[in-house]
Amino acid sequence: MFPREARVTVSRLRSPQTLLPVRLLAGALALSPLAARADENPPRFEVSAGAGVFGRKLAYRDIVTRGLQAYELPATPIFELGATAYALQRPSWGLGLTGGYARSLGFSSETSRGETLSSSHQRWQAGLRFLSRHGASRWGAQALLSGLSLSFEREDPSLPAARALSLQLVLDGEIPVGPLRLGARGGGGWALAMGPFEDRFPRLNAGVLQGAAWVALPLPGRVQLRGGAEVLHFFMKFNPEPGDPFVAGGAVDQFARIFLDATLSF
What we know:
- The chain folds into 2 domains: 1-31, no CATH class; 42-265, Lipocalin (Beta Barrel).
- Mean pLDDT is 86; it is low at 1-22 and 24-39.
- It has 4 helices and 11 strands, in the order H-H-H-E-E-E-E-E-E-E-E-H-E-E-E.
- By secondary structure, the protein is mostly beta strands.
- It is 14% helix and 62% strand.
- It is elongated and about 60 Å long.
C-alpha cells in the first residue's frame, strides 16, 4: 500500500484538470505548420502564383563591328504561374510533371539613337520533377526545357532582342530554421537555340547557369509564402570568321528577378 501522501500525488497526476494544459500544448504542436509538414508525404499537386520585378543586362566583349548594342533594363514588374503534378508517389518521394509561365507588364526601351520602343518579356518551362522528403527537409531535382524571349515592337538586327531555348538540369532544397524555411536552387545546361544571336553569329556556342535563394513561411492549410531572388545567366562564344557581317568575341546576357509567391499543396 502507498502512504497517504503518495496516493494523493498519484491521484493529482491522473486528474483531467491537471493534464488539460499538457494536452492543449501537444495539440498546438501537432497543428503547427512545421510539425504537420514534417510528417506529410510529398503532395499530389502543387500550384503557385506570384509577382515580382526583373531586370536584364547584356554586355558584348571584343566588339569589332560597330552597332552592336549593350542593353540594361531596370526593375520591371512580372507575374508568374506554376503547377506540378506528382503522378508517381511513394511514402517519402514523388515523381511528376512540372511547368510554369511568367510574363512582364509592357515596358519601353530606348535605343542608342534615342528612339523609344514598346517591349515585352515572357518565359516558360516544362519538364520532370523529383521530390524527396527527409523529416522536415525537402530535396528536389528537375530536368527542364525552358524558353525565354524579350522582344521589341519592330524587328531590327541592331536591337538586343532575345529568344532562347535551353535544356537544364536543376537541384533544389529546403530546410527548416525555426518557424521559417530556407531554400536554394542551382543548375545549368545547354542553349539549344538563341534566336537573334544565332542570326547574327551562326557559329555561336552558348550555355546557361541559374541560381536562386529564398525564405519561406509555412501557413495552415498547406500554403507556403516565399520571397527570394533568382539569376539566369547566358554565356555565349561567337566564333567569328573573316567576312562575317557581325564580329565580336562573345556576350553575357543576364536576367535577374526578385519574387514573392504563394504555393498551395494538396
